Amino acid sequence: MSGLNASLGYFLTIVGVSAIGRALFARWRPRWTFLTEFIAAFALAACRLEVDTIAEVGQWAGALGPDVAITMLFLSITIHAIIMQGVSGNPSVTLMGVLQKDVGAVAGVLSISAQLLGAYVALIVAGKYWEMELTDMHMIKNLMMAECSTSLRVQPLKGMLAEALGAVTFHLVYLLLKSRSQLLRIPIFALLLTYIAYAGNNYTSGYVNPSLAYALTFTCPGHTFLAYSLVYWLGPLIGMILALFLYLGNIPLLFSRNLLYSKKARFRVPKGKTSEDKTN
Description:
mainly alpha, globular
């Protein structure tokens, strides 16, 4: 079985399972929203793990170049956005909803916990899939599993700044297009996230998603858990808060008034005559 055919079969399986899970759990919303967040985070991490496999060893073991990895990344993000409409699978997006008072604190904690758990389950599932060694590419990846390559290729401070920059860009676009139609949002988000991943390849891989980074690089040697947390958790958090502040002018959960923009009346209301003026 060729490497590409095996990868396509893997992607289709993940998409099918995610679509079924999304349909089953959707009927229990909004009380059980965290279950759909689990599915969304699982699908994102599972697909990205295979994309990274193609990028790392595909050109040596499967004759799959970087263009294939980029194409698969774009397609996986696009399909994920279509299937998981209204569900992010991203703790930063969930926390932004909490700061905007759109999501309750308890629901936010449950969703973020489910997202991290979903990413961890995706890592286990991908590991079992690589153990099958269907192709030479997956055999090499299985051997590399214990000594995976870290995605953090710069100093933690630079990495944190890179993730923050990617996060502020993503969240600003997310806020600007929040009320637009899915037909416009989905391709723009897919292109943007693909570009951020491509641009950040030599820095942090541009995950801008704490749960995704947790599955893809936290288990890899090279840096401490604290360093990974600063880069992949604190970085996106800073970027998200900055984007929200730039867009709204404040953080609704923390400040009641606008700290950045002044609200001016759009129309002047003429002063009416008082009763004293009328009698004179």
